[in-house]
């Protein structure tokens, strides 16, 4: 198809299932007369491949009513053909979309973007979500760590909006609970292996054996494989509901 982009990561089956579930729900609503009488819902689905730039480009294509290939040639004055954008799972792509379409008063509804920063109504006036903010999860993690008496911990986070915002809230809450942070490491899937090796070295040299992680599935997968190769064991991991895309 024209404008088709090839993703560099394997098919995300969870995201595919979510898309299929949405299609099923829309078709069920359209086939019934008691939910939205005389109204028919339509949809168009783009795969942003977990990319912020592709997510923004897809949002522009949806607003213009054109395909990805020719969305940049249409006039800005043309009325949007959509009423709502659903997505994304990742906080960073969702921030990009919400920042763009919020200027045109188009609602964005995410099912998995949890960054507390998205709760700022001044910056994201048209953003909504069906999942709680990480603000509450971060504070709950701090209370959980205190409950088990882990007062000396290390932290790992993804270098994106999800990881940075969530970990900042956790560290603040941890300090209030009397928990000390020995180290705070940042990881990201596109970093060279040397960066992961350095993080593994920090973990091995540290005296704390409890690690709180605010990282995506892909980033943690890279780190865990390196820890396995280096035969690093005896660690207690405390994690969040790990997103696959962010």
TrEMBL record:
A single GO molecular function term of this UniProt record: G protein-coupled receptor activity
Domain called Receptor ligand binding region: residue spans: 18-240
Pfam families, per the entry: ANF_receptor
Record keywords: Cell membrane, G-protein coupled receptor, Glycoprotein, Membrane, Receptor, Signal, Transducer, Transmembrane, Transmembrane helix
Bilayer topology: Multi-pass membrane protein
InterPro entries per the UniProt record, alphabetical: ANF_lig-bd_rcpt, GPCR_3, GPCR_3_Ca_sens_rcpt-rel, Peripla_BP_I
An annotated GO cellular component: plasma membrane
PANTHER family: C-FAMILY ODORANT RECEPTOR OLFCD2-RELATED (PTHR24061:SF528), CALCIUM-SENSING RECEPTOR-RELATED (PTHR24061)
This protein's name: Receptor ligand binding region domain-containing protein
Organism per entry: Erpetoichthys calabaricus
Lineage: Eukaryota, Metazoa, Chordata, Craniata, Vertebrata
């Amino acid at each position: 198809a024209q404008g088709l982009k090839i993703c560099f990561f394997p098919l995300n089956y969870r995201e595919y299932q979510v898309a299929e579930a949405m299609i099923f729900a829309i078709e069920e609503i359209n086939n019934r007369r008691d939910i939205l009488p005389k109204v028919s819902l339509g949809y168009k689905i783009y795969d942003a491949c977990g990319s912020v730039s592709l997510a923004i480009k897809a949002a522009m294509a949806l607003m213009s009513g054109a395909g990805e290939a020719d969305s940049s040639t249409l006039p800005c004055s043309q009325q949007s053909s959509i009423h709502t954008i659903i997505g994304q799972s990742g906080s960073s792509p969702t921030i990009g979309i919400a920042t763009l379409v919020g200027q045109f008063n188009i609602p964005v509804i995410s099912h998995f973007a949890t960054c507390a920063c998205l709760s700022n109504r001044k910056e994201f006036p048209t953003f909504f979500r069906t999942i709680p903010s990480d603000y509450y999860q971060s504070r709950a993690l701090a209370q959980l760590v205190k409950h088990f008496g882990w007062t000396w911990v290390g932290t790992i986070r993804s270098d994106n909006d999800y990881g940075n915002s969530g970990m900042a809230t956790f560290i603040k809450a941890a300090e209030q609970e009397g928990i000390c942070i020995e180290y705070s490491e940042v990881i990201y899937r596109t970093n060279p292996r040397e960066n992961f090796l350095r993080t593994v070295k920090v973990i091995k040299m540290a005296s704390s054996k409890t690690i709180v992680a605010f990282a995506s599935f892909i980033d943690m997968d890279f780190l865990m494989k390196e820890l396995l190769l280096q035969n690093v064991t005896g660690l207690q991991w405390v994690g969040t509901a790990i997103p696959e895309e962010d």
